[in-house]
UniProtKB/TrEMBL annotation:
<comment type="function">
    <text>Catalyzes the reversible interconversion of serine and glycine with tetrahydrofolate (THF) serving as the one-carbon carrier. This reaction serves as the major source of one-carbon groups required for the biosynthesis of purines, thymidylate, methionine, and other important biomolecules. Also exhibits THF-independent aldolase activity toward beta-hydroxyamino acids, producing glycine and aldehydes, via a retro-aldol mechanism. Thus, is able to catalyze the cleavage of L-allo-threonine.</text>
</comment>
<feature type="domain" description="Serine hydroxymethyltransferase-like">
    <location>
        <begin position="5"/>
        <end position="380"/>
    </location>
</feature>
<keyword id="KW-0963">Cytoplasm</keyword>
<feature type="binding site">
    <location>
        <position position="117"/>
    </location>
    <ligand>
        <name>(6S)-5,6,7,8-tetrahydrofolate</name>
    </ligand>
</feature>
<keyword id="KW-0028">Amino-acid biosynthesis</keyword>
<dbReference type="Pfam" id="PF00464">
    <property type="entry name" value="SHMT"/>
</dbReference>
<feature type="site" description="Plays an important role in substrate specificity">
    <location>
        <position position="225"/>
    </location>
</feature>
<dbReference type="GO" id="GO:0004372">
    <property type="term" value="F:glycine hydroxymethyltransferase activity"/>
</dbReference>
<comment type="subunit">
    <text>Homodimer.</text>
</comment>
<dbReference type="GO" id="GO:0042803">
    <property type="term" value="F:protein homodimerization activity"/>
</dbReference>
<dbReference type="InterPro" id="IPR015424">
    <property type="entry name" value="PyrdxlP-dep_Trfase"/>
</dbReference>
<feature type="modified residue" description="N6-(pyridoxal phosphate)lysine">
    <location>
        <position position="226"/>
    </location>
</feature>
<dbReference type="InterPro" id="IPR001085">
    <property type="entry name" value="Ser_HO-MeTrfase"/>
</dbReference>
<keyword id="KW-0663">Pyridoxal phosphate</keyword>
<keyword id="KW-0808">Transferase</keyword>
<comment type="pathway">
    <text>One-carbon metabolism; tetrahydrofolate interconversion.</text>
</comment>
<dbReference type="GO" id="GO:0035999">
    <property type="term" value="P:tetrahydrofolate interconversion"/>
</dbReference>
């Protein structure tokens, strides 16, 4: 980074500081990961200098000799990996990708059904504060209070009563397997388009550690930067029937020129995700999350839905008498990075909720095995207890222990110093 350091030492220093932070801390935010050097290199290329409005072979700018090939590689790899007829790799991120889906299938005021945000759904599934909940009529399903899981019979009843044109399944704090076939049956019954938003679990699907929405969902929406371990970006995959509507919605409907450097990095990530090593990674992510869940449960932590089938754990801290935000901030001081999160039927406010959300994608990318999850659970236990009593000595001690484990498992994509 010698050029960056010479031109802008302030930004260069902050990048170096962030590298150090990502190296030294146990990153448990389930939507985050470490990308490979190859993905980072593709992101930082001159491909970003090029304007390419349109699609391969049908551009509005000349000079696409290389870019068309880059995007075609990304498209073909996406289709093959997710077994879908069609792929659009241009959405700037997950939220714009979902907005493009609305543009493809709905008119303002039409009804969309998705999981409520406080139940684990995403803002873009028709939640009130999002454009998707103000320009469209959002109706929302949730999880059961006792099980922490979706009751598909209730989803069906709501769909029959409200007749949505679009149904979203998937979410951002969902620790359990998504029954794509079950949602597809409901969507067919009411004549809705089914969108599987697999932003969180795309890498698990690619690696065979979660069932695939292919053959069930009309449209699959995903970010590329979570478990899929690619650059910040997104993709929309679909059946042949909806290919044109999706493409028209992304461009010219919603976006201008695609981010070609990101497209290249997506292609690289898709290549990586199609290999045997990534299959092992995806399965290890789940094994680590389940081991961590068991270790936390042993220490009296209450897990929403009682555990996990995927990469994510939602912990209700009400029983520990520590608010989620207080716990998250103490954990951050201890070098353990999580986010505070609403739990279903939370009695506290969204900006000060009862839970924390953690996941294993990033630590698994470092090669940390399931046998270390007892240690991780013990750290969380000690810090949450220390947060309650204001015991900063314990917090500092855990930080040292965390650093030692991180040093033993260097993260991919970071410079060795
Ligand atoms: C992360 C996420 C998104 C949005 O992605 P951004 O890239 O943050 O806009 C959409 N849907 C779900 C389910 C997500 O988890």
């Amino acid at each position: 980074m010698s050029h960056l350091a010479a031109t802008d030492p302030e930004i260069a220093a902050l990048v170096v500081a962030e590298e150090q932070l990502q190296a030294d801390t146990l990153r448990l935010i389930p939507s985050e990961n470490y990308v490979s050097h190859a993905v980072l290199e593709a992101t930082g290329t001159v491909l970003q200098n090029k304007y390419s409005e349109g699609y391969p072979g049908k551009r509005y700018y000349e000079g696409q000799q290389n870019i068309d090939q880059v995007e075609t590689l990304a498209i073909e790899r996406a289709k093959a990996l997710f077994a879908m007829d069609h792929a659009n790799v241009q959405p700037y991120s997950g939220s714009p990708a979902n907005l493009a889906v609305y543009l493809a299938f709905l008119k303002p005021g039409d009804t969309v059904m998705g999981m409520a945000l406080p139940m684990g759904g995403h803002l873009t599934h028709g939640w009130g504060v999002s454009a998707t909940g103000t320009w469209f009529r959002g109706v929302q399903y949730g999880v059961e209070r006792e099980t922490g899981r979706v009751d598909l019979d209730k989803v069906r009843d709501l769909a029959l009563a409200e007749r949505p044109k679009l149904i979203f399944c998937g979410g951002t704090a969902v620790p359990r397997t998504i029954d794509f076939a079950g949602y597809a049956e409901i969507a067919r019954e009411v004549g809705a388009v089914l969108v599987a938003d697999v932003a969180h679990i795309a890498g698990l699907i690619a690696g065979g550690a979660h069932p695939s929405p292919a053959g069930h969902a009309d449209v699959v929406s995903t970010t590329t930067h979570k478990t899929l371990r690619g650059p910040r970006g997104a993709m929309l995959l679909s059946t042949e029937e909806h290919a044109k509507a999706i493409d028209r919605a992304v461009f010219p409907g919603l976006q201008g020129g695609p981010h070609n450097h990101t497209t290249a990095a997506i292609a690289v990530a898709l290549k990586e995700a199609s290999g045997a090593e990534f299959r092992d990674y995806a399965h290890q992510v789940v094994a680590n999350a389940q081991a961590l869940g068991e270790q936390l449960a042993t220490r009296g932590f209450e897990l929403v839905s009682g555990g996990t089938d995927n990469h994510l754990l939602l912990i209700d801290l009400s029983g520990k008498d520590v608010p989620g935000k207080v716990a998250a901030k103490a954990l951050d001081r201890a070098g353990i990075v999580v986010n505070y999160n609403t739990v279903p039927y939370d009695t506290r406010k969204p900006f000060d909720p009862s839970g924390i959300r953690i996941g294993t994608p990033a630590l698994t990318s470092r090669g940390i095995p399931a046998s270390e999850m007892g240690t991780v659970a013990e750290w969380i236990d000690r810090v949450v207890a220390a947060a309650k009593t204001g015991d900063e000595e314990t917090v500092a001690k855990v930080r040292t222990e965390v650093k030692a484990l991180m040093d033993a498992y260097p993260a991919p994509g970071l410079p060795v110093r």
